[in-house]
Amino acid sequence: MTAYILRRLLLIIPTMFGIMLVTFVVVQFAPGGPVERLVAQLTGADQGATSMFSGGGGDATSPRPGGGGLPGDVSAPSKYRGAQGLDPEFVKSLEKQFGFDKPAYERFAMMIKNYLLFDFGKSYFRDTSVLKLIEERMPVSISLGLWMTLLSYAISIPLGIRKAVRDGSRFDVWTSTVIVIGYAIPGFLVAVFLIVLFAGGSFLQIFPLRGLVSENWHELSWPMRIADYFWHLVLPMFAMALSAFATTTFLTKNSFLEEIRKQYVMTARAKGLTEHKVLYGHVFRNAMLLVIAGFPGAFIGAFFTGALLIETIFSLEGLGLLSFESVVNRDYPVVFATVYIFSLLGLVINLISDLTYTWVDPRIDFETREV
């Protein structure tokens, strides 16, 4: 097992290098860039989806190195769209500020060197470090990912077992119908419906509309803080988790059905064991192998995906919204850092998932498996 773990850990190195190389190359060919984005802001031609400086402490003049000016009588040609009329020296100073005065291969090598030391630099358009930005947004994403995964498993596993025991019954049919319909409805539509119905829309005003905690959260007692925290999570959690039940529920059901039909279950019943003992003493461990071992992967999936629209609708400042804003605003340090951190965590979680298989079922031996 030690040799397998070492091989997997060593495999992370070329995998991460490939991911970052592909990301870097794609970004180089993407239209626009931080320099062109800033030029568009300065000349009033920016038509971006979000403000480049939203949520940060900078302003439109903060990236100007050396206090460069914007003389209107200079009309030199420029490789940046909309930069005609700007002082070429000013444009060059912007390139140097953002590091684009160096060739691409040199910038990539420097990025990899810094990332190996977990030095992600500072945001182009926010007056703070990338790690601090991620740290500020992390509580929202952890809250949504963790509680959605736990809620999904807490409901889906008992429901899947129940559906397997009563396979083909009326209960199995109507619950499957409800689950499939819930899976088919986009989460953001559910979120809008919940806001209209329960958050001060046209009907009731029971739940808070925005944020993870109330403005006076620090003034509350600890029990009230916990209650306030979960009260803010009710609507976004329900909107995200509604479609998450389907996969785990049907996986649990099918796993149980497969195990129930095996010979050892018939033998256990023939020995006079109760149905509860057969299900939870013999079937459960084997049937739940895939479900339990997939928990780390389910959490990382809930943590990094599907939360952008939910975060936007409920005004939650999470990693999904940060990544989207960074891509739109060409804030490359944040873009590359989030790709690097998310990919690294994903690879580690995959390894943990494999190790969880051996914990659930010691019969599995990865030493004989080729990586």
List keywords for this structure.
371 residues, mainly alpha
Descriptive overview:
There is one protein chain. The protein is mainly alpha-helical. It is 65% helix and 0% strand. The protein contains 16 helices and no strands. The model is unreliable at 49-77 (pLDDT under 50).
Secondary structure elements and their pairing?
Elements: H1 2-29, H2 34-43, H3 88-98, H4 104-116, H5 130-165, H6 170-184, H7 187-198, H8 222-241, H9 245-260, H10 263-270, H11 275-287, H12 289-293, H13 295-304, H14 308-313, H15 319-328, H16 332-360
Helix pairs in contact: 1-16, 5-8, 5-9, 5-13, 5-16, 7-8, 9-11, 13-16, 15-16
Class inferred from helices and paired strands: mainly alpha
Low-confidence stretches: 49-77
Helix content: 55-70%
Count of distinct strands: 0
| Biggest sheet architecture | none
Series of H and E elements: HHHHHHHHHHHHHHHH
Mean pLDDT level: 77
Q: How many helices?
A: 16
Beta-sheet strand percentage? under 5%
Computed Rg = 26 Å
Task: Indicate the overall shape.
Answer: globular
